[in-house]
Specification:
single chain; alpha/beta; TIM Barrel; 9-stranded parallel β-sheet; 3-stranded antiparallel β-sheet; 14 helices; globular; binds uracil; binds zinc ion; Metal_Hydrolase
Amino acid sequence: MAALSHRLLVDVHTHVYLPRYLSFLRARSAVPRVFTRTTPDGASVERLLILDAEPSGGRPMGPQYWDRALKLDFMKRHGIDISVVRLLRPACVPSSRLTLVAPRSSANPWLDFLSAPAAHELAHQLNDDLETYCSTSPALAGGPLKQLYGFGLLPLVPEVTTASLLDTVHQISALPHLKGVIMGSRGLGNGLDDDALEPVWAALEHAGLVVFLHPHYGVDGKEWGGKDNGHVLPLALGFPFETTIAVTRLILAGVLDRHPGLRVLLAHSGGALPQLSARLASCIAHDPVVAARLQHDARFYLGRLYFDGVAYGAEELAFVGDVVGRADTFAGSSASAAASRGAGLGQRRRGSRRMLFGTDHPFFPPLGETERWKSVVENLEAIEGVHGWDEADKDGVRGGNALALFGLSK
Ligand code: URA
Ligand code: ZN
């Protein structure tokens, strides 16, 4: 595995709006929707309007959101493809032979706005579409692996039956290019600590499917005040806070205790969870309702989770590595913080094994014409710049950890 993985750059956080899903959004007049606007010079441009409290003009949407050829071109332009790597390889990627395996997921808000029967039907269709999208992708020159893999969709909407959910888990696990499911924070409408999700966690654990937890709703839009700050506050803060709350509720409900084999990958490096995990542990320890509920100190569970590397900064990645790498010292419910001290850079290196490169493509395109996207280059440079990670650690974050997580090999 090591010999192969050092050549790989794996993007675990990349989205696609499949044509069938787009036609749904184009046909809608309420959020979420895609609409066409005519510019002053008479051109028609499409806009994506999907977030609650989003500025009403939404965001510009072009073919990079659905066109596979453009996605492949994007990969190549970022040094992710072997034949182009040699020309355009980002300076921070040391390997001279890179290729890409990209788990990709349908984009938010998934099926959240549909009735249960409609969500079931569309989930199955989109999962089949995504399998076709991945399996029929032209091979990138020289790539030793199939380049495209996906996260499927479950009909996670209120009033869906358990049978429908389990049937869809079964469908996904039978599709060879789908390696997990993408999931929002709402579950069946009551969040991820809903007891009704118990059979779903069990089925996903049993099937070995990775859960990619991704935000969509942010937090209450009233928090953003009246100033026009574009999309900055909901995307920079609302998204990560939403993930933080969702995964904390999952932990507090004991899901990770009951399902030790369940693998959950957190978007945007877990939001604020790494920064807040010691406070969470302290609040639990001081709360008579929760104190005895969990098998372990809250900090332990960070070592059970996976974190994408979409954090844009080396110090931020280093910090996530530090708190993830110390998790094992908090096994049990009365662990002491002192036990984790002095582990030093070994701890940071250990944490790196649960971190995986991602881009968030096609979101965050550069504002002006440029060959390479700042959002991608920054995330690569961040990995390169983490103090204390050696080349093996960095190669793991760039690709090797993803091979292991998704069970991919030559
Ligand atoms: N904006 C979105 O709506 N989704 C993402 O994943 C990133 C930015
Ligand atoms: Zn995303």
